[in-house]
Structures are given as structure tokens and as C-alpha cells.
Amino acid sequence: MNRRLLAMLACMTAVTAVMLVGAACLYQPTMHVSISGVPSGLPAGIALWIGLTLVGSSLPVRTASGNTIDVAFAPLVATMTLGGPAVAGWVSLIGTTQIRELKGEVPWYGIVANRCVIVAPSIIGAAALQLIPSRDVPLLDFLGTTGAAFICFTLNVALTAVFVSLRNGDPIAKQLRGSGGAYLSMIALAPVAWLMAQMYLTAGWWAVLLFAVPLYTTRLAYRRFVEVREMFTETVKSLAEAVDKRDRYTSGHSQVVQEIAMDIGRVMKVSDDDLEALEWGGLLHDIGKIGVPDSVLLKQDRLTRDERQQMNAHPVLGAQIIAPVKRLEPELPIIRHHHEWFNGSGYPDRLVGDEIPKLARILHVADAFEAMTAARPYRMTPLTPEQALAELRKFGGIQFDPEVVDAFVRTKWARGLADPGSDEVRAVPLIGEAAGSMASLAAGATPSGAAG
Fold it and tell me: Three-state SS for 148?
């Protein structure tokens, strides 16, 4: 663990401990009033909400980006509404414990960080809710609960981003960009949390259990979305690999190109949608070669003029093949234009400079680097990463976008930390920290890299 991370962890632990003690001292009188309608009393009420939060935390869904989504945010926000800062703090401290933590799959500093980034925001959100006047008016109480949930979630996301950034060395902004979709989960679960609290006060503890069905349905919806996306991605991978394996020298080519292109995209700070386009566009960029005859595709001698024209038609053919799939519409410019040259002498449309789609320029560099550093029939001895990088720089402004080449230099591929000639892509960590969760969100998504 690096020193800055250790210092941040020590500071947040101290602050969270002080907040827990302070909340118990300052807000204890209101806790009994908040849940006085519960016949079983305060201890049983706290135990109930801890149990509900534990159940919600035990059913996380891992998304394709490495984020985790669960429904524990609903009972946690309900606790903020019912019990105030002190109860919210203790419920979030105990109730967000995950099975993988109990199994020892998360290092100790990850467990401490997880507690800090959940407990402190919960206390602050609950304290903010106490400032709302006339909470006996349902509309004001509802708006106050939603606002408190928003504060809690925003602080949780920010603190998580800081911890992950200190661990991985990535910019905080990069971590925050991956959390945008999580706010949709919060918006959907905050009203449910308010209803759970109202039912708890008016009907009793048993009425809260009725919300298990909609919460579990929400969890199933998350899971189904992830499964559909995973199935789509695996189908695309299989299709790309089928094309690559027509030539034994290009087996695995598309997957490596995809990884390189996405790393360049991250360095250039492209949007999440653009990263997804690079992910699938990278896999499908050579799909048009399915229409190139084996006599041309596998020919080891120099291609004739007619054969070269057949080979150069594969970007257009690839775009035509993918065009009917509406979900892949953002990938079409990548597939069609990944062989355009920066000076306009490429194909198929001879675009120049910025006329070439940015993502196609990124993929062009990735495609060229992989081709140079892997064996081919026309060059059985591949170039070293250093030699390939020199070629990219030499032709910057001619064949390649210089800005993209500069971004590529900052990836692990340019530094020789990855093996682009391998059939299997192996991620190489830039920092030698142990894998494990540094910070998990009680409500929704954990920024990429946080979950172990």
C-alpha cells in the first residue's frame, strides 16, 4: 500500500469514528421519537434494518465494466429517514458487510475503506435530513429523503473515486465518469426507501418485508441486463475469432487490437460510450474479411492489383454486414474507416485528418501496432515493441494521427508491459497493489477497478 493511500485511509478512519460517536451523542434523543411507533422498540428495529441491508448487500451484480450493483441502498436510506444519523451510521457499518469480506477475499485496508466511504456519507445524509422542517408533511419528507439519498450517494461516489485513484494511480475524473449510470439506480431506489419507512411506521415491521419482492425484481432486472450484454459481447467475440482463425497467423488479432484501442481511448479520456464502441468495433473491424477469398487472404506472395482491391474492400463489406444491427450503429464508422490514412492516401474514402472519425484513427494505430508485433506470412519475424513504436512515430502525420500516437506512447503496450503477439490478452497492472475491493457503493456501482 502506498503512503498516500495509507494516509487517506487513516484520516478517513479517524473522521468516520468521530462522526459515529458524535452522531450517537447529538442525535440520540431523536432516535426513540423517530421509530416510537414500533412496538418491538429500538434494538429490534435496528436489528431488522441491519438484516435487510445485509441481504441487499449479499446479492451484488457485477457489470461488464467491473462495477457492482446491489439494492442495499433502499433499506439504508429508509434507516436514515427513521433513525437519524446515529442509527444510519451503525446500520451502514454492519449491514453493508459482504460475503467476500467474510471469506477473506478483500484485504483489510479494503474492508476499512469500504466502511468509511459508506458510513460517513450515511451519517451526513441523515444529518442533512434532520434539517428539513415540517417532516410530518409527506411531500416535504419525501423530497427531503430523496435529497438526503442524493447527498449520501454523491459523497460515497466521490470518496470511492479518491480511494481507487490513490490505489491505481488513475485520475479521479476517470473514476467519476464510470459512476454516471449509478445515479439512475439511486433515483429509482430512493422513493422505494421512503415508502419502506412509511410502511414501517404505519403498519409495522412485517409490512417492510413486502418490499422484498420489488427489490429482488430490481436485482433480477440488473442481472438480466448484464447477462444480455455479456451474451452479446461473447457472440461478437466468437464471430470475430471465427474470421481471425481463417488465417492461423491472425488468430486472436481482433481481441488484442480491441484491448490496445481501449487503452488508447482511456489515455485520451474518451467517453464511456466511445470506449464501448472501441470494444465492439475493435472486435469487428475485420469482419469484412469474411468476404475475401482464401486465395487472396492467405496468399503469402505479393498481391496483384486486383487482389489488393479485393483485400481493400473489406472495410466497406464489414460495414455493410454490420449495418442491419442497430445496436452496432456507433461501430460502423470505426469498421469502415480504420484503414484511412491521416494524409488522405488510405482507403476506402480517402478521408484526410479530422475527417477520419476519431475512434477509427485510434483503431488504426492499435491495428498497425498489433500487425507489426505479430508474425505474418510476409514477415515471420515480428518487430519488437520499440521498433513498432518507432514506425508509428515515423509515420505520424502521414499514416497515423500524431495525437493518437502520443496517447499510445503512454499505454502499457508501448512500454513492452503486454504481449500483443499472444493469443491471450493479459492485463498488466501498472501498480503492484493486491487485487481486492478498495471501496464499494452500498447503493449501486463501484467505479471500475474497485471491486476485486
Answer: helix
Distance CA 18, CA 263 (A): 41
CATH topology of domain 253-409: Hypothetical protein af1432 (1.10.3210)
Bridge partners (DSSP) listed for residue 400: 396
pTM beyond cutoff 0.70: no
Contact 266, 275 (CB under 8 A): yes
Q: Which three-class secondary structure state does DSSP give residue 128?
A: helix
Alpha carbon of residue 224 to chain centroid: 17
Measured distance CA(43)–CA(32) in Å, rounded: 10
What DSSP element (H or E) covers 47?
helix 41-57
Cα separation values, 204 from 111, 190, 198, 208, 210, Å: 33, 20, 9, 7, 11
What is the mean pLDDT of each successive set of 10 residues along the chain, which is 452 residues long?
85 92 71 40 77 79 60 87 88 87 84 90 92 83 90 88 79 64 71 87 79 76 74 79 73 87 91 86 89 82 86 92 88 94 93 94 94 77 87 93 93 68 32 30 31 32
Inter-residue contact 91 to 50 (CB < 8 Å): yes
Report the topology of domain 3-228: Arp2/3 complex 21 kDa subunit ARPC3 (1.10.1760)
Spatial CB neighbours of 286, under 8 Å, sequence gap ≥ 6: 240, 243, 244, 250, 253, 254, 314, 318
Task: State the sign of the Cα–Cα–Cα–Cα dihedral 114, 119, 124, 129.
Answer: positive
Residue 285 C-alpha cell reads as: 473491424
In the chain, domain spans? 3-228, 253-409
Which H or E run contains 440?
none
Residue 48 C-alpha cell reads as 431488522
